[in-house]
Amino acid sequence: MRRHDPAPDGVTAGIAEAAVTKPRPMRADARRNYERILATAREAFRQHGPDAPLDDIARRAGVGAGTLYRHFPRRESLIEAVYSEDIKRLCDLAYRLLEEHEPREALAAWMGEQVQYATRKRGLAATLKVAMDKNSATFALCKILMNEAAAAMLKTAQDAGVVRDKVQPRDLLLLAHGLAVAVEADPEAFERLLTVMLDGLKPQER
Question: Is the whole-model pTM more than 0.85?
């Protein structure tokens, strides 16, 4: 399978504009603490919303409050870190699927993973998005990264003739969101609706 094509110039330029300063490399113990805090915060936010007590998150993660605040001086920075890590995982998955699968299978798997993420987290992503500053560099970067991943996925599918030419990258993200909303009340409808959606994206026969 060929490597995915590079992102459009506008997307790449957008990343450069929105990118935040990369943190310094962490020691191994600091990295473990950081990852435990994120994992614990993700679950706490899912259970209690973005106002979950930070001291409780630190306790459940097995670190002191000072350690948490050194990594995340503000609640907003912790929320952004959880959200951006989830988004980056979704984007990394898109490129990996393009490397390992045929275009239709890659597209189906990625759309399905977006739906599973939205339903598995029970609204976590939506909850965090509401709590985030929409003008923050982190939020802008996440939006750009998702659109870039969708563009790479879409171009491969269009080049292979499995998706019509007029479909836009943003359309894939909107369709995944709509599918997640649809299957929330009826999870068993997921595979059926996903097939209907993919068939609807096919080029029309002449």
Answer: no
